[in-house]
Amino acid sequence: MAVAELKRPDFKVDVRPDWCPGCGDFGILNAIRQALANMRLEPHNVAVVSGIGCSGKTPHYIGTYGFHTLHGRALPFATGIKLANRELTVIAVGGDGDGYGIGAGYFVNTGRRNLDFTYIVFNNGVYGLTKGQASPTLVRGEQTKSMSEAAIQDGINPIGLAISSGYTFVARGYAMDPRGLAKLIVDAVRHRGTSFIDVLQPCPVYNDKQTVEWYMGRDREDKQRRVYQLIEEGFDPVVRDPSNVDEIVQKKQIALAKSYEWGDRIPIGVLFQIDMPTFEDGLDLRRPDGSKGAIMKQAAPYQDFSSVLGRFR
Amino acid sequence: MPLNKLSWMIGGPQGSGINRSAEVFARACIRNGLHVFSNIEYHSNIMGRHSFYRVRVNDKRIRSHVDSVDLLLALDEETLLGDVDSPYPTHRGHVHEIAPGGGVILDSALGVSEEQIGRDEVQVFAIPYADLLKEGVSRAGLEYNSRRHDIMRNIVSVAASFALVDMDTSVIVDILRQQLPARRAHLVEVNARVVEATTQFVKDEFGTDFGFTLESLARDSDRMIIRGADAVGLGKLYAGCSFQTYYPIAPATEESEFLETVQTQFPITILQAEDEIACINMAVGAAHGGARAATSTAGPGFSMMCEGLGFAAMTEAPGPVVCLYQRGGPSTGLPTRHSQGDLKFALNPGHGDFPHIVVAPGDIQESFEFTFKAFNYGDKYQMPVIVLLDRVLANSFWAVDEISVDGLVADRGELFSENGAANGGAPYKRHAVTESGVSPRSIPGEPGGLFVTTSDEHTDSGKISEGIENRLAQMDKRMRKLDLMAAETPAADKWTLHGPEQADATLVSWGSTKGAIIDAMRVLDEDLGIKVNFLQIRLMRPFPAEDIAKVLDEANKLILIEDNYSGQLGELIREKTGIDIESKVLKYDGRPISQNEVEEGVAEAARVGPVRLVMSHP
């Protein structure tokens, strides 16, 4: 016991993931655990919230509080638990079908609020757990191997949607780069406001288009990797003056333009970041001085409401 | 002539200020020591469609309306005669509802003649609204401006009504003084002059022609006028609810709006979410996070919440408390109208077998009290709790002397804490199988209490499992908590037999019909010679089947009263006890049952035997 107590928590648990060999989920799982360990967070002060699908099982494999919720509803749940206890570090995870299909409304509206938590989407273009149907990010004309015909619905642009929905930290990661992703997650968690990372990942069983080999550019004549780091090109995603609307619009425009870069070159890293008041800040402005930063789980019963009764007389 | 009993109604186009008039009228009555019950009927429309507000006044406590009107205040012709000439007529006005000897107040500028009204036994009081406004404004030393001053037509209406029934009109000015915001305080004076001019006109012109009189009575308390929605909100504050979500929907919104007005004074977060699925899942998240969490909605929103209720039950969340304000369904239905049509839905809100609690309060005190208790139920039994309300309960103004907190004790149920851990170092198991079914709950942030839980079937430690023995153990332990709840809840919370123990007929009902039934009981006994008692059932799940069967077995005639089509409580009773209540007095026209409809229905059912009666007063 003593040895274990001295050891820094590694957020590992004694449960074996039942994901397929070669799944991108492993890279994301490792990156999340690594990020939590690097930040030296205490396991009991972290809650990982997930939706449904292969990625939904993630909380079972991380040594924190974990909530494996409903399909598409991780964000509303995360909103509730964060507002109940602001001292928790809350990380919501889910798949692309979960977040951009059945949960699309919550994805958009969570961006409006800017609560201080992180949302990580495992984006592989398919519904894996239900055996490979097209997800909302699969582009028009693509046909993965379990589809009987090519897609005639277009794919959405998660980065563009996040930017226009008001997310204050918008990034794209790559599952097969766990070290880079871990660093990105640390930045996201430390960001004050809702941080969003769309993580590109292969589904080795059902997505035979965006494979590891494809991301690595093995099919290209020059054999160049498709994925590249924005920072290597000197891309600057940060709004310096949040009161400057022109700067915000300009930064959003270049981020949006970058988000459409696809095919031979796929940028990863932070695309947009701004420091804006959080939802919690808004609540504090409404509160009487005494209860700023209130942890709602500590609200006591027997609130004296006699002062309110006057309005009924 | 009738003293201290009046059924008053104001009607006009939506947006014309009838609410304001009615609320001032009702408040003025309780200031003068009288009791009131007032309810509004309006269209799903912002401006223009016909709406009306009833205020029933009495020197004794009343809890319901009656269909007849003693004094009708008509702001337009449609209020009198309906829209029968329109291509799609919807109603025939309110003149036909006026009791013989009653009266109509109308604006003489409407140009409606007594012939058009066509009721010889009804008095017509034509009031020159514009002249009185001008007179009042000029007495206040101001120049009349229709844009600025026509809003005081409401005050003319209230003052004219008070003057006709010989009630002291000065109280109207007192109320305005209290209600107008500081920046409008200068308007008190001009309103006072308008009241004065109106009072003088009515006294000079009509004297004591109108036979109905209201007197100021000594007040025995600082009586309140309050809606069920407010009482529920107060119950949440008193319970320490700190998180409430909502999506705007009639008739549930008033409760959240009330809470929004007090969120700066109390530690509560009100979040207007993007839809009801978000509402329920946020509330479940907050409940798991340790807050006493709630959400409020109406039938259409509740339909969307179903998956979240099953999820809360499956993961053994402490709550949340879901207030379901029933309105006329199905589908969008009658958005602004009343119904008790969601009982069976509230009992079966989702796929699979899962435990939850459904409780249905019947008046203001019960709305407060059972909202408070709902949080205890949620925390103790770790399941969602539905408080079943309806439009009449939520939106009517009820006069009550106090909100009693007697005997209300908060109980957060069995909690895990590392310090008090009795598990001898064994890993914490969030869904431990116990005899009672309740597993002590840990709250995120608690060291040593780490757990994962899931909407999938899971083991005692929250891991996904499709194992057979585990499934049986977890299903049984979840459902066992309902037995515990049933055993621990006093019978007085589950049901009440109002009135004498022995009676000719036992009325069986639930929810807001309580008001009309209690009011009708005395009339049935004293005037119609039918001695009745009334079984009010509050706890719908877990259903107190044995108690109810015993009461019903000992009763003589049984008469079911419900504001829905199928007699849903009757079906529940039959399902749980095998007893079929054959006589049913039902109402499903979107309007609440009135005291007189209870009297008529019960008298008829008692006379003819087993019968299905449908009440309506178009």
Give a topology summary:
The complex is a heterodimer of chains A (313) and B (618).
Chain A lengths: L1 H5 L17 H15 L7 E5 L14 E4 L5 H11 L4 E7 H7 L1 H10 L4 E6 L2 E2 L5 E2 L23 H8 L3 E6 L3 H13 L4 E6 L11 H4 L11 E3 L15 H15 L6 E8 L5 H8 L19 H4 L4
Parallel strand pairs in A: 1-2, 1-3, 3-4, 4-8, 7-8, 9-10
Antiparallel strand pairs in A: 5-6, 7-10
Helix pairs in contact in A: 2-7, 4-5, 5-6, 6-9
Chain B lengths: L4 E9 L4 H14 L3 E7 L8 E9 L10 E6 L2 H5 L16 E10 L6 H4 L5 E5 L1 H11 L6 H4 L3 H12 L5 H10 L7 H20 L17 E3 L1 H12 L1 E6 L6 H10 L6 E4 L3 H13 L3 E7 H16 L6 E6 L16 H5 L9 E3 L4 H18 L3 E6 H5 L1 E4 L51 E3 L13 H21 L2 H4 E4 L6 E5 L3 H14 L5 E6 L1 E3 L3 H10 L2 E6 L5 H10 L5 E4 L8 H14 L3 E3 L4
Parallel strand pairs in B: 1-4, 4-5, 5-6, 8-9, 8-10, 10-11, 11-13, 12-13, 17-18, 17-20, 20-21, 21-22
Antiparallel strand pairs in B: 1-3, 2-3, 2-14, 7-14, 12-19, 16-18
Helix pairs in contact in B: 1-6, 1-7, 4-8, 6-8, 7-8, 9-10, 9-14, 11-12, 18-21
